[in-house]
Amino acid sequence: RMSRKFERTDSLKKYLQAGIAAAKNSTDPKLNKSQYSLSADMALQIDSDTARAISIKKQGMGPNWSDDRDKAFSFAKWCLERKINLDESEAIARKTVNLVYPGVYRARVLSTLAHILDARGKTDEAILTVEQAIEQNPDDPYYAKQLKRLTGETEE
User: Fold this and answer.
1) How much is the pTM?
2) Is the pLDDT of residue 6 over 60?
């Protein structure tokens, strides 16, 4: 994240290569599976190939991943964090809202959807979505801060 923030992703290459090699050679299925995420980041950050990065990420999530609420949410967050594929991640986050339990989990998905909407310039809709998150989990102060940031009352 820091490399992206300071536009120094070139410094990631050796770390991504080492991680991919370690994941490929691992007997641990979880670690072995992480090679897809690392390869996707390599395609995105080093090769500047967004389409290939998205394809690799999806491939690593397995068949029917978009019907699995956890994998779908993970993909939407992955796209948001990288500020790519926001149209598809918005659709996936919207679908995921209806797949999670009301309360804490639904609030978390709604908050992520609000971040995606805001990144897409849909601030009014993002505000309404954060308000729904607050309704789902009124005790979490993060959502109130997010709402204030969106309405211009304060910085997040």
Assistant:
1) 0.86
2) no
